Amino acid sequence: MGDLKPPRTVLRIVAAFSRHAAALQWGKSALIDQWGPLALESPHFDLVETNYYDDEMGTGLKKCFWAFADLADSAALTDWKLQTNELEAACQSLGRWPERRPLNLDPGYITEAKLVLATTKDRSHRIYLRDGIFAEVTLQYHQKRWTGFNWTYPDYQRADFQAFFDECRGYLRQQLRQNPA
Length: 181
Known about the structure:
Layout: E1 11-18, H1 21-35, E2 38-41, E3 45-46, H2 54-57, E4 62-68, H3 77-93, E5 104-110, E6 114-119, E7 127-130, E8 133-142, E9 145-147, H4 159-178
């Protein structure tokens, strides 16, 4: 029997997208209020790999990532997704934007070995957590680079996204060295 030990803390991230810079700023501010300061923030990337969200969010979507300074317990992933769902609804209720869904917030985390995202959609490769939330290993860090799976969304396989995830992984490793668990 293996020795039981708690997992190491993780770097909490959020993938955010909208066609409205002000909605992205609103989401970032709301999350900082709840989760504390950012450690890293990506540029705003053009989201061109899919038109899945066009009907409810419009076209010309920009996607960015926020990595939060305080490392967290990965067991709270469900709570993070429930919180971001509430924030999406709150943003929508402001009535500032014409779209049915002006802001999308997808939380997850980075470890030294993987990037995990929370979702409400069940698929064969996703693990049910609780309260309607599933977890997906979206990328793995293998042989000094991020690699996807056959289910990995095309945008997560982009070099510019993965360069940001490299920065996140470097930040995480530095924090773990400074504060070993």
